[in-house]
Amino acid sequence: MGMHQLQSFEEAKSAMLMTKPVMLVTDESCSFWYSELQSSAVTSLRWHFFIGSFSSGFMKTSNVSTAETFLKHTMRSISFDHFWAPEDAAIVCFTSGTTGKPKGVIISHSALMVQSMAKVAILGYSEDDVYLHTTPLCHIGGLSSALAMLMVGACHVLIPKFKVAVAVDAIEKQCVTSLITVPAIMADLVSLSRVNGKWEERQSVKKILNGGGSLSDEPIKSAIKLFPRAKIFSAYAMLSLLKHGWDRPMQNGLGSLHFFFCSSYIHYYLPNISIYWNYRSHSYFSSLFL
C-alpha cells in the first residue's frame, strides 16, 4: 500500500484500517505519525520503521526502529517456497477519482506488469533513457513508469517531491530524456521556462507521458515549443479496472502528439462492454456502450 506526505494522518489511518498492514515505513515528512499511532487503534500494525537521517531530532527523541535494525534481525538463511500467483495482490492504491472517500484498489501482479510492459512497447523506453520521477511512487502512474524503466535498465533520477525549479534543474544537469506529467506539472514547467518572453528549450527530453487530465491546444503548443524533440503521449486509465493499454497517433496539426489508453482489460471483467473512440472529432473522452 502506498501513501505520501500530502495525506493527512486521518486519511492514512483510514487506509490502514481498511488494508490491515503489519508494517509501516515512514520518513521524516511523516514523522509526526509515530506519536499519533501510539494512541490509535491500528491493531494489525506490528512494526513501524523509519527511513531517513539518523541525526534528525525525530530519531533522537523517538524509540523507533530503522530499516537497518530490521535487516540486522532478519539476516539469516531462510528457504522460500516460490509459487506463481499472477492474479494475487501486488499493491493496494487509493484513488480519489470517485465520489466519497478514497477507494482502495487491489492491483494484481499481472496488471502491474502488463501496464508497465505496455509503456515500454508504446513509448519506446530503453536502457538509454534517463527518467525523472515527477509523480509520487505511491501513485499507479509513477509506480508503473518506474517499473517500466527498471525493466529496460534505464537510469532513474529521483527528487523528494515535485518542485518545478528542482525538476528543471534535474532535467538540465542529468540530461533527462523521459518524464511523466499532469496538466498542472506541465503548466509549471512551461511557466518557469518562459523567462522574459524567451523560451529555454529542453533539448534532451524525447518522451513525455501526460495523464490525470487532457492537455488543451495551447498547453500542447507550449509543451512542443519547450520540448521540441519530444513525443508527447496522453494517457487515460481507470485505476479500479487497471489492466492494459494501447496507442494510436493523432494527426491534429500540433506536432508529435499520441494517445495512450490504459483500457482496463474491460472485456475480461465486463464482456458486454466495448470502448469507442471518436477519431474524427479528436474527442478526448471514450464512451462505453452496452
Tell me what the structure shows.
The chain has helices spanning 9-19, 32-38, 57-61, 67-74, 109-123, 140-152, 164-174, 183-193, 217-226, 266-269, and strands at residues 23-26, 47-50, 65-66, 89-95, 103-108, 130-133, 155-158, 178-181, 194-195, 198-199, 207-210, 231-237, 245-250, 257-262, 274-276, 287-289. With 290 residues, the chain is of the alpha/beta class. The protein has two domains: 9-74, no CATH class; 107-289, Rossmann fold (3-Layer(aba) Sandwich). The strands form five sheets. Strands 7-6-8-11-12-14-13 form a seven-stranded mixed β-sheet, with helices on both faces. A three-stranded parallel β-sheet has the order 1-2-3. A two-stranded antiparallel sheet has the order 4-5. α5 (109-123) crosses α6 (140-152) and α8 crosses α9. The radius of gyration is 21 Å and the shape is globular. It holds the Pfam family AMP-binding. One of its GO terms (biological process) is fatty acid metabolic process. InterPro entries: AMP-binding_CS, AMP-dep_synth/lig_dom.
